[in-house]
Structure formats: structure tokens, C-alpha cells
Amino acid sequence: MRDSALTTDLHGTYWRLKESAPPVFWTPANGGHWVVTSADAAIKVLRHPDRFSSKFLSIPPNPNQPKMIPESLDPPEHRPYRQLLRPFFEGKAIAPLEPRIREWADRLVDDVSAQGECEFIEALGSRFPVSVFMEMFGFPLEQFDFFRGTVVEYFDVQIDETRRVELSMQILGSLAQLIEARRTEPRDDLVSTLLHIDFEGRKLNQDELISIGFLMFLAGLDTVVNALAFGMRHLAQDDELQARIIEDPGVIPAMVEELMRRYTFISTPRYITQDTEIEGTKVYAGDSVLVPLHMVGWDEKLTDCPAEVRLDRPHCRHAGFGSGIHTCLGIHLARMEMVIFYETWAKKIGRFRLAPDQTLRYRGGSVQALEALQLEWDAT
């Protein structure tokens, strides 16, 4: 797929790939790699880390890329770290955050409600989930613009590898500063907790702390932003769904799942460690395979009429949060944030629409994004 197609019609381009390409195929792009386009093929890759490794999270493989614990680890090394982090992201652990998340949603929506318009990603889509995450992890909120700008540039497929390395060093340096600050002055945040937690009879060392932080930085400052942006883009053009959530906010959790299914935005790479087969196609050790997670939620065998956004599905099957051992640790927090945001928006703004005469542009790459989204509504 050409990047130019992705930048103008991201999900449409992936959909056409699903419709026209075989379940597994080889592309010479990015040095050459395999791509899967069916749910069966995607799930096979994601759920067999013994053959499809996460140790290189880029195509082509970059052995100098900073490690991201636990995302870039395979079994058996992966499990102890995931078990260490999992309790901090379980439903019961994040439940106490709900009042503070609602405060953020109320404040940010109130800031724009009287204006009758906003550029959603700058005013709300980034500031809401990123502020929540920065508080939780321990990043200073006064550095919001620097942190958000850094992660957006890091995921930009147009930058060269030298610049990406520079950005990595900036992130690692910020993490090292934060860790040292919390060693001196612990606070009620995740970094302070990780500094003192017991891990297999010892404390986490500096490299482990920075590696965990690097993953949290990239995931926490970008993924929910993208989910909300794609969701709001759809909702702005779906009057019936807008009316539904205004009249019955109880359907919003189902809507969150359905929008994640329809507008999945991650394509995850895996490194093949042994000659094997994917749905009858022979693949080889040393090759890479790209798994567009979109393909799970778009598979007709799992979802009737997958192009439609519907709230009446008995099961909403998708891989928007990943699948297998690397399913997103922050899945419960992400869902809570999105449900609270849509509830707040429906209550305070109500009906809204896309601003006319705008050209939507998208970011391709492994984590896809909408670059800007201008919205309008009738302010009261």
C-alpha cells in the first residue's frame, strides 16, 4: 500500500486491501515483508509468539530500537513483567480514577462548549486522555505540549531514522529525569510505586524502569487520542447514532466497542523465528509479517455486515486493543476514558457535525491517526 493512499483515505485503503489481497501475501515495501488480511491469519500470528516474535517492533527490524517492556518480550520473559504491571491496570485498580477522569472531561468540554466549534484533536482529543495518563504515571502536566509533540513526531512515517533516534533519546532522557525526581521525592503516581515494588525478590533496575516507561509514554500519549478522533469523525456524520446516545447514554459502552472494531488503527509487526505456515502459505525465519489489527473486526465470518456501525450485535469481536499475550494493559482505562468522554460530550454539546470544506488527512505507519478534525455545533 502506498503511503499517499493512506494519508487521504486510511480505513478505505485498508478495506480495499482486505477485499482484493489474499489472506497472506508478500510485499517488497520497507525491505520486503509478509502481510495478513484475514482474522484467521491475524489471530494465528498474534497468538503464537513462539513462532512470531515481538522482539522487533518495526519493519524492517531495528535491533537498536529501545526495548519496551513487556511489549517487546516473548515468553517466558514476558509473563513476569506483565504480571507485575497488570494489577495497576485492572478494573478495580482504575475505578478510583473515575471522579478525576470526569473532572477532566467536564473541564475540557466546558472550555469549548460556548465556542460552537473546535479543532477536536488539539482542544480535546489529545488533552483529555493525555492529561489523565500524565497524572497517573507521574509526568509533569506543564510539559504536556512537549510530550505530545514528541510522540506525534515519533510516529510520523515521514521522518528519517536519525530523527527518530533523536526523539527516542529525548523520551529516554525525560524518563530518566522523572525516575530520579521520584527517587528523591516519591509521589502518588505509578513511577513512584514501581521504584519500590518487589519484582522476583528485588527492585526493578534503571534499564527496566526506563523500558517500561518508554512503552507507557508511547502508548499513553497516543492511542486513546486516536480512538476518540476516529470515533468522533464517525459520530459527526451519523445523526441517528448521535440521537441514540443523547437519549440513552447506557448504549455508549457498546458504541465504544463498535467504533473500535470499525476504526481499528494499529498494524503490528512480528518477526518470524522459524519456518512455518500461515493459513497454508509458507513463511520463513528471519522475515517479518505485518498484522493490521483491523482485519479481525472486519472479517465477515466473525461479524455480519462489518462495514456498518451497529449497536445490536450480540458480540462485538475485534482486536482494537490487540489479541493474545500482548493485549493492551490499559484496556480498562481506555474504555473508561472513552465512555466518560462520550457521556460528557452528549450531555454538554449534544448534536454536532463536521465543519464544511475541510480535507481530512491521516497518518499511516504502525499506529495510524487522524491529523486534525474540525467540528461545529449550535452553541447555546
Automatic annotation (TrEMBL):
InterPro entries: Cyt_P450, Cyt_P450_B, Cyt_P450_CS, Cyt_P450_sf. Keywords: Heme, Iron, Metal-binding, Monooxygenase, Oxidoreductase. This is Cytochrome P450. PANTHER family: P450, PUTATIVE (EUROFUNG)-RELATED. Belongs to the cytochrome P450 family. CDD domains: P450cam-like.
